[in-house]
Write a structure and sequence with these properties.
The chain has about 300 residues and is an alpha/beta fold. It has one domain (about 15-275): NADP-dependent oxidoreductase domain (TIM Barrel). It is about 40% helix and about 15% strand. The chain has an 8-stranded parallel beta barrel, surrounded by 4 helices. Strands 1-2 form a two-stranded antiparallel ribbon. Helix 1 crosses helix 2 (about 55-65) and helix 8 (about 210-220) packs across helix 9 (about 230-240). Bound molecules: NADP nicotinamide-adenine-dinucleotide phosphate (NAP). NADP nicotinamide-adenine-dinucleotide phosphate binds next to helix 7, strand 10 and helix 10.
């Protein structure tokens, strides 16, 4: 059984998901179907899509073409309707494109609701749960800063189950307040951009040598070539963080599907990754994340 993480509403989400919003899949119907089929065939039964990616219909097609039962796949989508009056029709459109209700619906950004209306937006989503439209669907948020979460907590009778964020060791210092607040309210962090230290940081920074040492240890124990991306993913899921990654490469998809069966990191190894990670600050997806939520005073590299 693939590893899963328990949400505060009682449901369990597969700990590793495959997203069709990056890597050339954004807005690309046919490639999103082909890669989605490959991800499912590799055994990754968790797809992260969004209204904004224009890949919800491709998600439905991929599940159909892979011959997988809908109920065996976890689907997260996100909405970007800015207007309270059309939230209901927007949600119905998500369900129509996906061919079924999603398992999890997120407000994609705190900037989706018009300024000052986040609480009202959340209340409308709750009403849709109560009237049956979103019955059985978990509700969450994405890219929410502490102040955005507080806007929801002021009104929520159903708390968000997740906050999906750019999450990796080089944003830990910056995210600490939002992670602490989330933990206090039982919110699970979902990570996107996890591989930023390896793929987008100019040198790999101070965690690189730590990950290399751990990869060598696990490779020696398993007799398999374990790469740094797998070590970083293990680190995140051991912290009870859901990882949403992506790939169009069958070799990497196979690696992602095998992470579950790798030996765990020790507490010392986890601590070493974080101590090194907290020495720098490096973010790839900037958006609104530093607005009224300042960056830590750290260099981007040592
Ligand atoms: N909520 C939001 O605002 C938000 C924002 C961004 C992303 N997301 C979601 O998160 C998903 C993933 O985002 P991301 O692309 O930033 O995630 P990521 O995990 O940081 O990077 C994914 C990239 O890593 C490469 N990769 C995968 N396994 C690898 C390995 N073992 N070694 C080397 N490279 C490897 C893949 O390229 P190959 O094809 O070459 O394997 C892929 O393009 C998106 O598709 C989307 O669903 C959400």
């Amino acid at each position: 059984m693939p590893r899963s993480i328990k949400l505060s509403d009682g449901k369990s989400i597969p700990a590793i998901g495959w997203g069709n919003g990056t890597g050339g899949l954004f807005g690309n119907h046919d490639p999103a179907i082909t890669s989605g089929v490959e991800a499912l065939k590799a055994g990754i039964y968790h797809i992260d899509t969004a209204e904004g990616y224009k890949t919800e219909q491709a998600t439905f097609e991929a599940i159909k073409q892979a011959g997988v039962k809908r109920e065996d796949v976890w689907i997260t989508t996100k909405n970007i309707s800015p207007d309270r009056e059309v939230i209901r029709s927007n949600v119905l459109e998500r369900i129509e494109k996906l061919g079924s209700k999603p398992d999890l619906l997120l407000i994609h950004f705190p900037t989706v609701p018009q300024q000052g209306t986040t609480g009202q937006f959340w209340t409308i989503l709750e009403e849709l749960v109560h009237d049956g439209t979103l019955e059985g669907v978990s509700l969450g948020v994405s890219n929410f800063r502490p102040q955005d979460l507080e806007d929801v907590f002021k009104v929520a009778t159903i708390k968000p189950v997740v906050n999906q964020l750019e999450y990796h060791p080089y944003v830990l210092e910056h995210l600490q307040p939002v992670l602490d607040l989330g933990e206090k309210h039982g919110i699970i962090t979902e990570s996107y951009g996890l591989l930023t230290p390896l793929l987008r940081h100019p040198t790999g920074g101070p965690i690189k040598s730590v990950l290399e040492k751990i990869a060598k240890r696990i490779s020696g124990e398993t007799g398999k070539e374990i790469d740094l991306a797998s070590v970083l993913t293990l680190w995140a899921i051991q912290k009870n963080v859901v990882v949403v990654t992506s790939s169009r490469n069958p070799v990497n998809l196979k690696k992602i599907s095998e992470i579950d069966s790798l030996p765990e990191l020790s507490q010392d190894e986890i601590r070493e990754i974080e101590e090194a990670g907290r020495k720098v600050h490096f973010r790839h997806y900037k958006m609104h994340m530093t607005k009224d939520y300042p960056n830590p005073e750290l260099p981007e590299d040592l």
